[in-house]
Amino acid sequence: MRTRGAILIVNIITGLALGFTVANIGFGDYAELNRMFTFQDLRMFLSFAGAVAIIVVAFAVLRVRRVPGRIHAGVVPGAVLFGTGWAISGGCPAIPIVQVASGCMPALVTLAGIAVGIRLCRWANTRYLRIDSGSCAR
Amino acid sequence: MNDYWPWWAGAAGLALVTINYAIATDRSFGVSGAWDRVLHWRTERRVERANAQVTDDAVLIEALAAATAGPLGAPPLTPAARPSGSGGAGTPGPDRQPPAEASSSMARLLPAPLVSQVGLLLSILVGGWVAAVTSGRFQLRLDMGEGFRQIVTDKPTEMVAALFVGGVLVGFGTRLAGGCSSGHGLNGCGRLQPVSIVATAVFFGTAVLVSFLLWKVI
Predict the structure, then answer these.
(1) What is the SS3 assignment for B103?
(2) Which end of chain B is more exposed for a tag (fewer CB within 10 A), N or C?
(3) How far is the alpha carbon of A10 from chain B, nearest alpha carbon, in Å?
């Protein structure tokens, strides 16, 4: 299952399932998201934390290999920026796609911002920051 | 009252998606990483071609090693050159396995193909659309909903500005941190990787802080 075609098919299935699941949990709903982050409603938080708990057990049982990664200089400042942006816009990189898919057109602005931010980060990192951030998901 | 999934169904769904991906591809997925590669597709295409060349060279070296080890009676040099059967260890000949094992182990170190990242992003759109339509939540609209109006702003210009700035912070931040809620949060924390645990704690903690500020102060 590791040829290019197979990986493409797995990615498509994963994307379909991820989009369907994230939308049905309610991550695309700004009010729900704010209720999660302010602990008014733990439903979405438990969805995420419960998923992580299941994955930890499953990966340990299946002996899934780790991906190379280390705590580099960009992790904490990057995570602070991401958390701030997520709370303001209601979008992590997958969520605005789901918002657009449900008819919420302003999420296109969030997507445009994400695209600018991603390109800006690579440009700034190449020219100035020079952090070897690697990637957790390649 | 909403009609969203209960927490346990959401947890099971997210876990299934992540576990299936890891089993099927021996990789982890990340949406910000996919965005990054798709947005820099020219560079990524060049990297992909270079990687393909390196992999081809590795396969060629393995094949040559397997071919020369046979006639010379030398022991297998690599796992790829081992005989397929349990008997006849070191037996040279045509029943040797091709160097698929070595090329496979090399290929799994490479990033997922660029086209698969495009597929991931587009299929999230389709999956989200199916969910919205089947649940009756699909609605074309030009605002972010009542929650955004109450908590952030009800002015269209300010909404656009907030979404754009928020998006830039998300894009810049996820790439600086090396991942997002799927890459670090699900895949990385699932593997108990320290970098992902730190990143997830920080981005979640920051989001909590900013959300309280938006809700109670601003």
Answers:
(1) helix
(2) N
(3) 7
Size (chain A), residues: 138
Reported confidence tier of residue B105, pLDDT bands at 50, 70, 90:
low
What ipTM, to 2 d.p.?
0.94
A39-61 residue pLDDT tens: 999 999 999 999 999 999 999 99
- At B198, list the tokens: 């730190």
pTM over 0.95: no
Whether B82 and B122 map to the same domain: the answer is yes
Which residues in chain B have their CB less than 8 angstroms from residue A25's CB? 4-5, 10, 13-14
Report the number of distinct structural domains present in chain B.
Answer: 2
Q: Do B175 and A133 touch (CB under 8 A)?
A: yes
CA angle B164, B165, B166 (to 5 degrees): 90
Pick from B87, B115, B140: which residue ends a domain? B140
CB atoms within 10 A of CB B141: 11
Structure confidence at residue B96 as a pLDDT band (50, 70, 90):
very low
A115:B16 CB<8 A: no
Identify which of A2, A75, A100 has the shortest CB distance to residue B195.
A75
**Residue of B172, B187, B209, B213 to mutate, interface with A, max A Cβ within 10 Å:** B172
On whether any CB of chain A is under 8 Å from the CB of B52, the answer is no
- Asked which of B116, B140, B164 is the last residue of a domain, the reply is B140
Question: What is the residue range of B24's domain?
Answer: 1-140
For the cut 80, the answer to whether the pLDDT of residue B90 exceeds it is no
Contact B164 A32 (CB under 8 A): no
